[in-house]
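step: validate -> pass
step: tokenize input -> pass
step: predict -> running
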Amino acid sequence: MVAVQQTPHGSEFDAVFPAPSPPPTVLSPSRYPGVSPEAVAALRYVLTDNHTKYHMFYKGYLRHTAHHALALYALGASGSLIEQSYERGRVILLPAVEPPEAITEENFMEHLGDDKFYVAYVTFFIEAIEEKGVSTTLDEYIFSEKYNFIEGRDASTQPVMLNRFLSGVIHALIHVGHATEFGIPGMVAQGLAMASVHWPNGHMFFPPSLFKHGGTPPVEEATTRLASLCLNTKISIAPSQLKQPHRNHAFSILAKIMQDPELAMKKQFYDFPELTLEHGANIWRYAEQWTIDLSQPGEIERKMEECIWTNTVLYAICGWRKDRGFTADFIFMHLVTSSLFLPSVLSYLPKNSQVMLLRTYFASTLAWWIARNSPRLDIRGFIDATSSPVSSEGKVSNPFLNFLGNAITQPEDHVLKIQRAFAHFSSLYGARPKGYFKGTELDGAEALDGSLFLTATRLTDEYTIQGGKTWDREGLTERISRMKRLRLEREKLNLRLKD
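step: predict -> pass
step: emit ->
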């Protein structure tokens, strides 16, 4: 048994990496029984050791050992298991890189996209959070016009922080999502630093007008100006009580895109700048058609639910084919795990920024789906082929607990994270009946019900754990090679400019 390391009380990290706090909203995941002083000590050791010694975002790769530690903690894992997982995963970590200079307000824009400044951006954001708090810091540096579009700048030099926040496979949002779910200010700073040094997914994917209307198209703005909803307060409407208006539902947007010949990809675009350069305006046009009407009670919760269902459908149903069965796609998996954190991140944002995040997040979902060549959604075929009952041979009668028990000991951390997400989604939306999505334009959507989350959990377990297969990364090798070439070209260009 591994001896659990202790983080000294009264250390400089007490305020930055405190013991986890309760979830910020009832729509955030609940904690499972098993939390102990040993587990808290192990978790804080992992977070502080990872912070002081390692570079969490380097050469385009995210090192997310902290995510695995927090998922284990949330599911009631022991301190020794949390630390064993960290010791196993740290072998691939890279040492922290001393930045060439400190980041200040004056030079903030100059080093965006340069991962040599990651540590400097972390320090900058820790100081900003200490001065302004998490909510104000998030809102200012991710959602304000100042940190996204500056009048007179060339498109390639715009700061586009919200774009960077959702770039890659939405890793910066995932990191900040863990931070807001567990109340860890130091991780908020890390996530904002990740966004700062990340290269954007096409500089002009999110138009400048977005930051003047707060994410609400002008047509909708007049009807939403007087509405208010704040997730920092207790939600008074239970998710199961919300009515489901279908005007321009997320499923309807998927259906429209599948009928658009301009978005019928002749190849798979794994490089986002290439995709958004050619089709970004068209994708954004569809994202703007997605209705977010804050004059309707419960609209933010409803739109979060649409994102969660959409990502689950893309992962489970696009991953299934009649001729081969289910394949767990690496990109769609990240869409599912990122949507787990929408409630926690949104709870720290004002109304306009909530709308901006939801709309840009949905646009990113659409873009990734199209980048994977818009796989068809054979909903009825999927249900017919995968509706076999879950085996009752598990240790307990709740199948989710069996699947989580299988995932908690897996060294591959994404398995645990997606299974935790599906378990939480089932707790919120598992009672949705067939016919709930009747009225959307997506063919077969009326056949969906809350059992989809259990089916997706079972298929993931069968593919990754029982089947011993790794995530399907088809095409990503080429994308990573292109990213490396582009990074080298940017570094050479920067050197020439400095000379």
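step: describe -> The longest strand covers residues 54-55.
step: cleanup -> pass
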